[in-house]
Amino acid sequence: MPTLGGLLKKRRTKDSQTLSKELPGSTAGHTSTSPIAADNTHHHHLHFHNNHHHPSDNPANSANPAASIAKQQSNQSSASKAADGQTASMQSPALQPSTSAHSNASPQQHGNAASIQNIIHPSEHNTPQVSRTERTTKGKYTLDDFAIQRTLGTGSFGRVHLVQSKHNHRFYAIKVLKKAQVVKMKQIEHTNDERRMLNRVRHPFLITLWGTWQDSRNLYMVMDFVEGGELFSLLRKSQRFPNPVAKFYAAEVTLAIEYLHSLDIIYRDLKPENLLLDRHGHLKITDFGFAKEVPDITWTLCGTPDYLAPEVVASKGYNKSVDWWSLGILIFEMLCGFTPFWDQGSPVKIYQNILQGRVKFPPYLHSDAVDLLSRLITADLTKRLGNLHAGPNDIKNHPWFAEVTWERLLKKEIDAPYVPPIRGGQGDASQYESYQEETEPYGHAGDDAHGHLFADF
Ligand SMILES: Nc1ncnc2c1ncn2[C@@H]1O[C@H](COP(=O)(O)OP(=O)(O)O)[C@@H](O)[C@H]1O
Ligand SMILES: [Mg+2]
Questions:
Q1: Contact, 251 vs 198, CB < 8 A?
Q2: Domains along the chain?
Q3: What residue owns the CA closest to ligand 1's atom 23?
Q4: How many of the other CB atoms lie within 10 Å of CB of 421?
């Protein structure tokens, strides 16, 4: 029999079966800093990449860029200090065999206690002040603009490469999708939506899309390279996160989802595999493969089995609140090291468990966490937090989040609990797993049977 530990190590893949037609959205735009531009504006801030992508849109920068750089600098150094040399006190492994090879990967137990504790004063409602201006991203690049380095991740429909721009020499991530595969898996609309939704969003905790193009076989999406690796890897190495650590990541995710919902975008694939850590340890949500504009209700069965809400499993119409259910599963997984409906990796059993809806809370969970989780992981949509009159405020004002100062969190003023051990700006992909490289070269000319299906790229 396979062990629980063994199965949990595997990254989980999507499940999608298109049952409905989906709404088209819109794209338009203006130009912004890009990998193709000569690097005349970027030399001076190598170390603070994230702060400078959207100088006018990132709330952290709006007042005084110099001050915010200084702040990041001091955050960085104090957080690094906290992370160094404090790798010893692991929680006792609850379920998994030891992963001693990675013992240096779990300093997140300590430093954060202090940094989370200084987040007093829970705030009133706070809508992220992020511009809705869109970038021009169509057809801006070709493969010749980049040197492909290695694979960072593979998913159900795509492969993501670390690349270096030949123009400004910075590092980016390019997601490559094979058009034939997308068509075969009936993901045409989802893929067009992925591009369209990603193009609309700008938020400190969401990945930035710089441009897209296609050749006869593949679609390409250029994004920022997020250097710190997947939250999935950190979680599996750590087995589970202490309460304040899980709270920090959950809080950043909550702000990102709140923002997406304010644009009527459902995300639909929340899970640690899609949450990346930047060089300072803040989250970036990647993978908009199932993101979609849904003002009211939709029916498509898609997502990742462990994280699906019961109304999705039951093929009912559903709304944005499926993301709040998934947030509950995510918090549960961060605190426990496994998901509540997990069942030896079998999707059918997982779906049965989801429909039964019985969650066993391990005794080590804080009572505030249990309370929040039981209000998120609830099938009754008239009771699920996030879906009630106050919307996401019911989640943000829940006692489990009491210490979080939401405005400061949005500005990345709260130190992350764990700073990835990488050198920023160097194309350091050491936090990512190794993958067998693609053997088929990209950049084909010639017959293109599917190009017309992806006119936005
Ligand atoms: N911008 C990025 N920077 C670094 N790694 C990334 C980035 N985007 C994706 N990845 C890696 O590639 C993996 C697969 O990408 P994803 O968009 O999730 O594809 P899929 O839709 O196939 O799941 C991610 O889980 C992550 O490990
Ligand atoms: Mg993914």
A1: no
A2: 3-51+132-227+425-450 (3.30.200.20), 59-131+231-410 (1.10.510.10)
A3: 155
A4: 16
What sign has the CA pseudo-torsion 360, 96, 113, 244? Answer: negative
Residue with tokens 């899980």: 246
**222 φ, ψ to 5°?**
-95, 125
pLDDT value of residue 187: 96
Q: Cα 57 vs. chain centroid, distance in angstroms?
A: 20
φ, ψ of residue 219 to 5 degrees: the values are -105, 145
**Cα distances (angstroms) measured from residue 163 to each of 47, 69, 147, 156, 281:** 18, 26, 5, 21, 21
Write out the residues surrounding ion ligand 2, Cβ under 5 A: 155, 274, 287
* Interior/surface letters 321-342, b for 16+ CB within 10 angstroms, e for the rest: bbbbbbbbbbbbbbbbbbbbbb
Q: What is the DSSP letter of 237?
A: H
* Confidence (pLDDT) at 138: 83
Q: Is 71 annotated as a binding residue?
A: no
| φ, ψ at 13 (rounded to 5°) | -105, 170
What whole-number distance in Å separates Cα of residue 120 and Cα of residue 214?
48
Q: d(Cα 220, Cα 165) in Å, to the nearest integer?
A: 14
Closest ligand 1 atom to 224 CA? 1
The ligand that comes nearest to the alpha carbon of residue 286 is: 1
Rounded to 5 degrees, φ, ψ at 442 are: -85, 175
Within 8 A by CB and 6+ apart from 359, the residues are 332, 340, 341, 373, 374, 377
CA-nearest of 292, 290, 143, 287 to 213 is 143
pTM to 2 decimals? 0.78
- What is the number of other CB atoms lying within 10 angstroms of the CB of residue 63? 10
What is the spatial distance between Cα 260 and Cα 254, in angstroms, rounded to a whole number? 10
pLDDT of residue 49: 28
Q: Which atom of ligand 1 is nearest to the CA of 287?
A: 17
In the block, which residue shows the tokens 């490289």?
Answer: 437
Both tokens of 358, joined, read 């019985």
- The residue contributing the CA closest to ligand 1 atom 26 is 153
**Strand, helix or coil for residue 141:** coil
CB 108 within 8 A of CB 88: no
Among 163, 157, 125, CA closest to 145: 163
Q: Separation of 295 CA from ligand 2 center, angstroms?
A: 24
| Contact residues for 170 (Cβ-Cβ < 8 A; gap 6+) | 35, 39, 42, 49, 164, 425
Ranges of the chain with pLDDT below 70: 1-8, 16-135
